[in-house]
Amino acid sequence: MHMTKVRAAVAGASGYAGGEVLRLLLAHPDVEIGALTGGSNAGQPLGALQPHLTPLAGRVLQETTIENLSGHDVVFLALPHGQSGAVAAQLGDDVVVVDCGADFRLEDAGEWEHFYGSDHAGTWPYGLPELPGQREVLAGTKRVAVPGCYPTVSTLTLAPAVAAGIVEPDVVVVAASGTSGAGKAAKPHLLGSEIMGNLSAYGVGGTHRHTPEITQNLSKMIDGEVKVSFTPVLAPTPRGILATCSAPLKPGVTAEEARAVYEKYYGDEPFIRLLPEGQWPQTKSVIGSNAVHVQVTVDERAGRLVAVGVVDNLAKGTGGAAVQCMNLALGLEETTGLTAVGLAP
Amino acid sequence: MHMTKVRAAVAGASGYAGGEVLRLLLAHPDVEIGALTGGSNAGQPLGALQPHLTPLAGRVLQETTIENLSGHDVVFLALPHGQSGAVAAQLGDDVVVVDCGADFRLEDAGEWEHFYGSDHAGTWPYGLPELPGQREVLAGTKRVAVPGCYPTVSTLTLAPAVAAGIVEPDVVVVAASGTSGAGKAAKPHLLGSEIMGNLSAYGVGGTHRHTPEITQNLSKMIDGEVKVSFTPVLAPTPRGILATCSAPLKPGVTAEEARAVYEKYYGDEPFIRLLPEGQWPQTKSVIGSNAVHVQVTVDERAGRLVAVGVVDNLAKGTGGAAVQCMNLALGLEETTGLTAVGLAP
Amino acid sequence: MHMTKVRAAVAGASGYAGGEVLRLLLAHPDVEIGALTGGSNAGQPLGALQPHLTPLAGRVLQETTIENLSGHDVVFLALPHGQSGAVAAQLGDDVVVVDCGADFRLEDAGEWEHFYGSDHAGTWPYGLPELPGQREVLAGTKRVAVPGCYPTVSTLTLAPAVAAGIVEPDVVVVAASGTSGAGKAAKPHLLGSEIMGNLSAYGVGGTHRHTPEITQNLSKMIDGEVKVSFTPVLAPTPRGILATCSAPLKPGVTAEEARAVYEKYYGDEPFIRLLPEGQWPQTKSVIGSNAVHVQVTVDERAGRLVAVGVVDNLAKGTGGAAVQCMNLALGLEETTGLTAVGLAP
Amino acid sequence: MHMTKVRAAVAGASGYAGGEVLRLLLAHPDVEIGALTGGSNAGQPLGALQPHLTPLAGRVLQETTIENLSGHDVVFLALPHGQSGAVAAQLGDDVVVVDCGADFRLEDAGEWEHFYGSDHAGTWPYGLPELPGQREVLAGTKRVAVPGCYPTVSTLTLAPAVAAGIVEPDVVVVAASGTSGAGKAAKPHLLGSEIMGNLSAYGVGGTHRHTPEITQNLSKMIDGEVKVSFTPVLAPTPRGILATCSAPLKPGVTAEEARAVYEKYYGDEPFIRLLPEGQWPQTKSVIGSNAVHVQVTVDERAGRLVAVGVVDNLAKGTGGAAVQCMNLALGLEETTGLTAVGLAP
Questions:
Q1: Residue boundaries of the structural domains of chain D
Q2: Which processes are annotated in GO (biological process) (chains A, B, C, D) (predicted)?
Q3: Residue among A197, A202, A237 minimizing CB distance to B197
Q4: How large is the ipTM?
Q5: pLDDT of res. D98
Q6: Interchain contact, A191 vs D191, CB within 8 Å
Q7: Smallest Cα–Cα separation from D72: which of D142, D167, D175?
Q8: For labelling, which of A3, B123, D86, D307 has a CA lying 20 to 30 Å from the CA of B12?
């Protein structure tokens, strides 16, 4: 098939999310990479900031202005929280805007204000095509709010059980994450010397900003609100999240029944794989890929369903979802330019 | 004070537990290191197997026989599961035997058989002096069952809340651990190439052997049995466990009250530190040390108490507890030769 | 262009080299993956052994027999040293055989016997297309000896200087490598617990088997033999080699002249990038990719040229070179299915 | 022996060097820890900045003023380059001042100005007691310049060969280091996300500031100047340096002779261990300790002596040397409070 390539710009090309979008776009057969913009890094060659993007090494970052971002079919926003709304408003309704930030994820303005401490910008179609009906919502859309990394894996790991009503709506998620989710801004506690050999808890007690997003996703699946206890753990690896999720099991549900629920729910999803019985997920299997690996079991003594899911926080957890949603928005094959093959070892 | 040094033997000196006991004994002012024995490594110099124990580099491992272990005041057993009973029986009742393995930890023979698949060897005094009344049990004892690493941190992190009855007896523990807990036997999934950059779940659904030990410890604190959902996660670091623990909060309990419960419970424990409000534990703070750092909060929305604890699985989680209990058994000052100072960064 | 896909088999699909070949073939538009064989792992599903190769998870490993490997256009051998010759002999002269092992790399039988302690199997076209004239040798060949990982990066980093005669033929290479180069066989010193937080030297004093291969490559560029002092260092990362190379500078050569030599030598190579002045290579920029990043400078005081190169030992250092050479052997575009984009962070 | 404890202050207690000095002083039986000062961190509790120093968690950092540092027997300076001179001048000649910074290491003012770009502060007794005659220089001194981490291990690894004249004075040092040597100031390229899985070269071509210090040390051992080619490599581990050192061998020197030279040179040094033949150093063996492990061999084909040494850059490479020198300066037993036992795994 011969077609004109889609022209894509990336705002925030020097950060981790922007870099990942570019890494994936470089492998996308239907995309031509247009403007690359940055904040304080404008004027620098990309090769000095993202040396792994070898083919783009000579490209120079422009300032993040509407002029520079104009004239593209799709614009990826990988900006600090709170900046996407103003940019999107000026880009016009005919441009596909994919926001990798949090600004348009939450539907409840009060929740946004509680967790982010600023005015709510609005709500865009939520970029998780694996949720019921969501693929249709995203087809042809001009605006996409890419989900947060923790919500992506937590939601996908729990959704089948919650939707089927085989658990009480009272879930516990403890998710160990690599450090790239914390971004590229230099902070002492994120130094390699601090991170290597270290495991640390943060955002404990429901204070992490991804908590209301998980709650929003899961609560849509039932009549009522799902209680979510979410604890993130920082782990010494650059990429990957492993989410250990559990909830009280409804009486009499067996491991086989739970497994059947998951099989049915995700049967033909291109990027979600329910592992064979007895095999548990590891993040390494999905690094660099758009795949999500999931496993589920039942702990009879504790009376809980326990499910574990893994995702690459930068790939399917951010940049991969962005590209997947772009494909849907533009009417391309959903999986184009994406892979379910991880980089291991 | 002038005293004759205690003469200590270590059976299983080539493994991680045995090596850690030796590392700590080398810093103990009242101990003289006697026989070092190994299994298939007998005949080799310790310097080839544990090159970090520089002062012992020239010592040659002997076979693990009663002859070689006789004539010591204390014998540390760091053997594979199931081997400690026979050795201990021949050592005589006047020798202090500290078992770093699992053989004598569980009180319920049925639980042992269910999780370990062999006959129950018996039950020895449980080497967690920080539990109520346990310090007294250990004083002057001739036998010690050193707790498992996960049970140590899980129990200490949850004990105050469970004992005070501020939570329902239905706890969820997700504990990320370094790899040394898996031992030194070479297995493909423990290779550095597999471990680095990887997070993986295992023993999910209550199948890990430390589950009944956590249950046993916590259930002693209430009238009834505590339900324990325990999931271990393998993390890319050699040492350290971070346990994220939670349970449904009894109605009306505030974060301040929860904190007061913890402060009171651990007020004067030499190795347990409740961190200042708002500071969350990280494993690196306790690496190489006998310290346990704990923090607790309340998640009002989720209706749960959330507590996080960290321990060095080889130090306070194994070898440090062994030395601490030896001190108690021999009537030495409990903290001798041990430190609450971690190695960081 | 419509074409029949090339049918490829991989012998040794459960190891790191075989897994990497498969990872790359899954992204190759012109290849269909045929038989996958293993040694002791025959009969197991690939998903249990290489869970990152999600699309092949259900494929079952066959035994490594001629029957199973027959009927393919290309066969990749990722076998232990010494096994490739017998297999290749039976595959027939019309099949492209790409050997990822060492058996056919060395030209001097005496060197082979000295370093490998067995009979020399022979010499196949050496799979480093970036060497002068080598691309032509590989075009249409039926046999390829994929270079060793250390020789690939050491040779490419030093070749321009040695060939131009701006250094004495007396080079020092110290190369820090990730652990995957040591393979997937479980050995205690390669356990994650041992590797993480550790740097260790091995094969010091010219005893590493890659030494004669580096010597062979560099000596072809001059009239005489290049003296090579090679020391590998094991570093705590799964992938990547950083080679620090130096040699006494011929009198009067400036940094600018050295740089010009490198620019000219590698000007239009698709996978080799001489970094901008002042930017030094890091392995992370090339992980997962076929790229080699190189930098060179002159240390006037020490009188030496110093050049640094990086490669992904499994990608361009093994599997990527294998696919690159397959492309040449089959008359496909050399870069098909390969990327110069690394996976970072 | 009953004695009044030495009272020690640490200026720069919030950084890595200051933290390591404190970690070691906490284990020193003859030292009482006095004032702790910091720059921008003054006013904060140490527990928030160095949570591993559990017993000092409640101590609050003071400002780095003469008033705060006065009244101590020994003052450790762990300050940014260029600040030690002014502080030391005001502390008085009767106080032992141990400078962990670079200010007083170099003897040649021109070299200082070339590499550091500021005025030379002077030269203090060099804190490497293992150099010939240096132990005597340090006994009773009131000023100590603690060596750099790279110079410590490079000098100790090469000194025997250079001093004995069995190599040409033309050495090549490639040293892979953990990240803590780069300090605790937050810089993007030192983030955990950048460091993990990465190997990178820096300061190539003789531009690293430790180059003239290595040259100074080695040149004292011969009649003339030793040419030093030094390349540091940043490796993904918090601590530890492995230095691979080589030099052209004088004709006819055998491996046995080289080994004998090293044995004689370091025969009774308490912290330096020449490993048994065939065993090569690894950093993990010396982490947290004051030990240096060294091995040497001869590469006959390449005509070079190759020696490898390891050190913990923060311990023997900084804080341990500081305490060792304090012991000498105060007339205490040199090894007091220090260990040759590393923390592994």
A1: 6-147+316-330, 150-313
A2: L-arginine biosynthetic process
A3: A237
A4: 0.97
A5: 98
A6: yes
A7: D142
A8: B123
Asked if residue D190 lies in contact with residue A193, where contact means CB atoms within 8 angstroms, the answer is yes
Residues belonging to chain C: 345
Which 3-state string (H, E, C) describes A46-106?
HHHHCCCEHHHCCCECEECCHHHHCCCCEEEECCCCCCHHHHHHHHCCCCEEEECCCCCCC
| D85 φ, ψ (degrees, to nearest 5) | -60, -50
* Cβ pair B196:C237 closer than 8 A: yes
Q: What is the pLDDT of residue D315?
A: 98
Span A238-276, pLDDT tens digits: 999 999 999 999 999 999 999 999 999 998 999 999 999
Q: Which amino acid is at C45?
A: P
Amino acid sitting at position A57 = A
- The pTM assigned to this predicted structure is 0.98
User: Is-catalytic flag, A149?
Assistant: yes
Same fold, B6-147+316-330 and B150-313: no
Burial (CB count within 10 angstroms: exposed 0-12, middle 13-18, buried 19+), residue A273: buried
- By three-state DSSP, how is residue D231 classified? strand
Nearest chain D CA: its distance from C295 CA (Å):
10
Distance CA C127, CA C148 (A): 10
Asked if C287 and A52 come within 8 Å (Cβ–Cβ), the reply is yes
Q: Which residue carries 């160990």 as its tokens?
A: A176
* Contact by Cβ (8 Å): D41, D63: no
A246 - beta bridge partners?
A: A172, A306
Chain C: closest CA distance from residue A286 (Å)? 6
CB contact under 8 A, B199 and A239: no
Comparing alpha-carbon positions, the chain B residue that sits nearest to D197 is B197
D293: its two tokens = 């492990």
Place of tokens 């591993």: D52
Measure the CA–CA gap between B2 and B247, rounded to whole angstroms. Answer: 50
Q: Which CATH superfamily, name and number, covers A150-313? A: Dihydrodipicolinate Reductase; domain 2 (3.30.360.10)
Chain A residue with minimal CA distance to D51?
A194
Q: Which of C276, C284, C286 faces A47 most closely, judged by CB atoms?
A: C276
Question: How confident is the model at residue C235, as a pLDDT?
Answer: 98
Summarize the confidence of residues A128-144 as an average pLDDT: 98
Subunits in contact with chain D (3 or more CB pairs closer than 8 Å):
A, B, C
> pLDDT, tens digit, for every residue of A183-192?
999 999 999 9
CA distance D17 to chain B (A): 10
CA angle (D240 as vertex; D237, D244 as ends), nearest 5? 110
CB spacing of A231 vs B238 below 8 angstroms: no
Which residues of B belong to the active site?
Answer: 149
Res C1 pLDDT > 80: no
pLDDT at D1 over 80: no
Per-residue confidence (pLDDT) for residue D266, from 0 to 100: 95
Mean pLDDT confidence for A77-105: 95
Where does B6-147+316-330 sit in CATH, by number? 3.40.50.720
pLDDT, average across residues C290-296: 98
The pLDDT tens digits for D187-205 are: 999 999 999 999 999 999 9
Ranges of residues in chain B whose predicted pLDDT is under 70: 1-3
All residues at 6 or more sequence positions from B297 whose CB lies less than 8 Å from its CB, including other chains? A204, A205, B255, B258, B259, B305, B306, B307
Do A170 and A314 contact (CB within 8 A), yes or no?
no
